[in-house]
Specification:
The complex is a heterotrimer of chains A (167), B (160) and C (409). By secondary structure, chain A is an alpha/beta fold. The model of chain A has no long low-confidence stretch (mean pLDDT 86). Helices cover 35% and strands 11% of the residues of chain A. In chain A, strand 1, helix 2 and strand 2 form a beta-alpha-beta unit. Chain B is built from three helices and seven strands, in the order αββαββββαβ. Chain B is elongated, with a radius of gyration of 18 Å. With 409 residues, chain C is mostly helical. In chain C, helix 5 packs antiparallel against helix 6 and helix 6 packs antiparallel against helix 11. Classes of the chains: A alpha/beta (167), B alpha/beta (160), C mainly alpha (409). Chains in contact: A-B, A-C, B-C. At the A-C interface, strand 1, helix 2 and helix 3 of A face helix 4 and helix 5 of C.
């Protein structure tokens, strides 16, 4: 594995143990994502397509949606979020436990899309932090899978403190 | 066949709806706000316009009275549509409600109220339906700027 | 690690009732982010045990300001917005809007465009019904039926992507015709997809139609009478499931429907089972219509030869000054539509989809209003939910096929 800027070079036995632990936990977490599909609009059609037989998310371990935020770790915001929906999204995000990742699926979730008016939120990163942006109106299923794979690379490279901040 | 029905409606309502035109297959009647309920009752009971399709408003800011309130009805027996229009000013945008005649009027009058500010006398449930509690103003009026947002959740600082 | 502070968030709605009306009843909030309500709908339900006493349905969580956007874009630029109303059957919205503008301009489309629009409208209707039935069956636990039907829907999406360039929201209709003509081999693939669809819907019928569990969950649940349905403004499969054969394609024919031979399926009781069956039969009728239209499709120009709305050919734009100016004016100012107003309705997948358009001359509309069937159905859905069990809310809601983009516009 290449040296990652987010992790200091192993300087001793403890750091070696931490790196190996991070690799193992990252591998486990990236292949067992439990998405919470926060579905609102047209992108839902592509979300249904990407979860079904022809473009399968089951191959990535991300097949089983958990419809409660307490049991899921990947919040997929699929479709336009309006100002009326914003408190609902924020509450769902806050109810999720760490570690959690957020995917903005589609241009409406990324930046508001072409709805630049009084009703639509201009991108969900105005209210919650986002880890992955998948553009497209709606994005093709191949783009969604590409996005999930990039997110998996990032989860694999991340630090995963499980006992305290150091380990 | 639709022409025959339109002729009958026009004759029957000649007193309250002097301006009646047929354009693109729809009979359009212009009535005074006070005569609205009588006209609609006549359409429903005598001419079988049993389906209430829609109520909306059109904003003409340069004109007085400012708003056109437009209703559309459909007859499942004669397969024709009729449009009823009234004009109300900004100072007194009140028309009668149709909830006593058609159940579908509930939601549609709520939408017309929140978008244009038209009040429906007799409908006491005019809560916002497409907009949210705390939204001020009526967005589809021509003087509401399109991009004036009223966020419910304050924006956070987005670090690139 | 200490817990992060809980943010105080405002409540975007005001429910119709705060306290229960019966002894010991509980008020429960379902949605708007809920797996089984397809789309963002919030139902505040008063429950007495498992029985639903009354409900208050709140929509509007997907209100994206379509009508306000319409007042600041040219007539052509609105076609992508109109697509995203009923996003499951996007082509029907395109054609309904284009026909309303064409009526105002006094344009009659070419025969080839008329037949092709009818064919694609029926194709979109099939995609919408497949989505509705697949989602409804999945909520009852029939995951296999969902996967069968969504596979066919995916073939339809790829096939339409070959034609229009996009899978879900196509922007293919144009004022005066269509964007471009069929590619080679498209009709052959169409027949292959329809044949495979017949196999798959046959399998779904076999799995579900006489299934004891399905019948118990869907028969006599969510019943609505014809009088109630008409009073609450129901149209489309919901009205037809109560037993009346009201269909705009037969009652007020438009496009090429007068020349086609098809039946209008109706239900008997107005319950969930009837709505499922009416949609399955409508899929068969649409396939039958498509097969007739493939035989009847004439050759000829696709777009009407009217420079008020049709873009000139690219080689003329690059060589002639008149075509260049025409192209420039159409893009920058938009097609000039004479003053007037029109209400034009098509039979969408959910019912009467109407566009009320007001023009003051010029390339930008004064007002565009969409009469959407889903919004009106949301006004009356409480008639089908009250009195039944909590678990019946899910299949009843699925059978109504509320599409958020259409409901909230």
């Amino acid at each position: 594995m290449n040296a990652q800027p987010s992790r200091p070079a192993p300087a001793g036995a403890f750091e070696y143990l931490t790196t190996k632990k991070d690799e193992f936990v990252g591998w486990a977490r990236k292949f067992s994502l439990f998405p919470y599909p926060f579905v609102t609009a047209c992108c839902a059609m592509e979300f249904m397509s990407v979860s079904s037989t022809l473009y399968d998310t089951d191959r990535f371990g991300a097949a089983l949606p958990r419809f409660t935020p307490r049991q899921s770790d990947l919040l997929m915001v699929v479709g336009t979020v309006t100002h009326k929906q914003a408190p609902v999204l924020k509450r769902v995000y806050e109810q999720m436990c760490e570690p959690k990742w957020v995917v903005a699926f589609g241009v409406c979730a990324t930046s508001g899309g072409f709805y630049q008016n009084y009703a639509a939120l201009p991108g969900i990163d105005k209210i919650i932090p986002v880890d992955l942006y998948i553009p497209g109106c709606p994005p093709r299923p191949e783009m969604v899978i590409d996005g999930i794979m990039k997110l998996q690379d990032r989860i694999a490279r991340d630090r995963h403190p499980i006992i305290n901040e150091k380990f | 066949m639709s022409d025959a029905v339109f002729e009958q409606v026009r004759e029957h309502l000649a007193g309250v709806a002097p301006e009646a035109t047929v354009a693109h297959g729809v009979l359009a009647l212009l009535v005074e706000p006070a005569h609205l309920l009588d006209v609609v009752r006549a359409l429903k009971d005598t001419f079988a316009f049993d389906m209430f399709l829609d109520v909306t408003a059109v904003d003409w800011p340069e004109r007085e009275p400012r708003f056109d309130v437009v209703w559309h009805f459909y007859s499942t027996r004669h397969f024709v549509r009729v449009r009823v229009k009234t004009r109300v000013p900004l100072a007194d945008p009140i028309v009668d409600t149709l909830v006593t005649l058609y159940g579908s009027a509930h939601y549609m009058e709520r939408e017309c109220h929140e978008m244009y500010g038209i009040l429906f006398r007799g409908n006491d449930d005019l809560r916002p339906i497409l907009l949210y509690e705390g939204f001020e103003g009526h967005p589809l009026r021509k003087d509401y700027p399109k991009q004036k947002e009223q966020p419910l959740v304050p924006y956070r600082d987005v670090k690139p | 690690m200490s817990a992060p502070p809980v943010t105080q968030l405002p409540n975007p709605i005001r429910p119709a009732f705060e306290t229960g009306s019966e002894e010991g009843s509980v008020i429960v909030n379902i949605g708007p982010s809920h797996p089984a309500t397809h789309g963002t709908i919030q139902i505040v339900a008063e429950l007495s045990g498992e029985r639903v006493v009354r409900t208050d349905v709140h929509c509007g969580y997907l209100h994206r300001g379509f009508e306000k956007e319409c007042e600041s874009h040219t007539w052509h630029n609105l076609i992508p917005y109109v697509d995203r109303l009923n996003y499951c059957s996007a082509l029907i919205n395109d054609f309904a809007y284009c026909e309303a503008v064409e009526k105002l301009m006094g344009i009659e489309i070419t025969p080839r465009a008329r037949y092709l629009r009818t064919l694609l409208a029926e194709y979109s209707r099939i995609a919408d019904h497949l989505t509705c039935i697949a989602a409804a069956l999945m909520e009852l636990g029939a995951m296999t039926a969902f996967l069968y039907l969504v596979t066919i829907r995916d073939y339809i999406y790829e096939h339409l992507a070959d034609l229009t360039g996009a899978r879900v929201t196509y922007s293919y209709g144009r004022i005066g015709g269509l964007a471009h003509d069929l590619p080679a081999g498209w009709l052959k693939r169409l027949e292959e997809i329809l044949t495979e669809m017949d196999t798959f819907t046959g399998r779904v019928h076999g799995l579900v139609d006489r299934n004891r569990i399905f019948i118990d969950r869907m028969r006599d649940v969510g019943v609505i009478t014809t009088a109630d349905a008409v009073n609450w403004g129901f149209t489309g499969p919901l009205l037809r499931s109560t037993g009346v054969p009201r269909d705009l394609r037969k009652d007020t024919p438009y496009l090429a429907y007068e020349e086609l031979e098809f039946e209008v399926p109706v239900g008997i009781k107005g319950d969930n089972y009837d709505r499922y069956y009416v949609r399955m039969r409508e899929i068969d009728e649409s396939a039958h219509m498509i097969r007739q239209l493939v035989e009847m499709l004439p050759a000829g120009p696709l777009c009407v030869d009217d420079r008020r709305c049709t873009f000139p050919e690219k080689q003329l734009v690059y060589t002639e000054i008149e075509s260049l100016i025409n192209h420039f004016k159409l893009v920058m100012d938009g097609p000039q539509v004479p003053p007037g107003e029109v209400y034009s309705a098509h039979e969408g997948a959910n019912g009467e989809l109407g566009f009320y358009i007001v023009s003051v001359g010029g390339g930008v509309p004064w007002k565009v209003h969409c009469r959407s069937p889903s919004f009106v159905h949301m006004g009356g859905v409480h008639r089908m939910l009250d009195g039944y069990q909590l678990a019946d809310i899910v299949p009843t809601f699925g059978s109504v096929n509320m599409i958020g983009g259409e409901c909230d516009r």
